[in-house]
Here is the input.
Amino acid sequence: KPSLVAVERSVRLRSFRKELEARDNAARQAAHGPQQGAPAERAARLRELFLAPLVAPEDAQVRADAAFYLATSDQDDAKDLLIQTLSDPDTKRADLAAASLARSDDPDNLRALAERLERDPDASVRLRIVESLAEEAAPAPIAAAALLRAAERDSDLRVREAAVRGLARCELGRDPRLLGVISKLLGDDTAELSLRQASVQALHDYRDVAHELPAQALSALLDVLERARGPLLGDVAKALGEAAVDPAPLEAVLINVRDPGSRRALEAAIEAVKARVQR
Here is the structure.
């Protein structure tokens, strides 16, 4: 049975394709029009549209559609162009290339993105790939594995944070490796605060889609609750307020907390748990 995160991604992709097919613009004519000739000729026309400067208001949409048609083309050089464009100085064009490759559902495209993520020295390119894999490809196993590696060992903090947050779109309830990375970061008192906060955010975002947290995730939040301070305590309290079934751990921590902001966060979480349990 498909998970809710997989269903959510499938719904988004179907909606995108439906809107794409409804647009009868130059990109669609190049990809599917009766006058465009052989596949190589169609790909050449799509390359022109993708690389053309934006002049008219509708050109941005044509470029975006051309990027997706290139990503789903059977012409290798069309996909190679998108891979090369990942580091284009035109960041909007580069973003389109990454998003289109990730959205294509083509394992070869996802592997190409994962390989580029591993070796590209430019952190901005790696961040672009991570965000596209998370937004457009997850929970595909290739995307999840790439996000997992980046979350664990990328050299740039921004990339790691984005990868951790991106794991929210993966199968946290079915793949213990993914949840293990989040739990480990969350419980590491020596880790950067932003990484620990990204871990809490990932659990929050996953629950928004899956409607519940795995037991291991709840345990990780409860384990760090007593040690957390400041912004992290507020984030953990909020996450537990949305997912916990017993207010007692939150109440126990509240007794020893003096910071007004942290107390408010804990009190709100306690009330949220009680209200949910009573329903």
Remarks:
- The chain has a mean pLDDT of 96.
- Residues 1-171 form a domain with the Leucine-rich Repeat Variant fold (CATH 1.25.10).
- The radius of gyration is 22 Å.
- The CA atoms of residues 86 and 94 lie 5 Å apart.
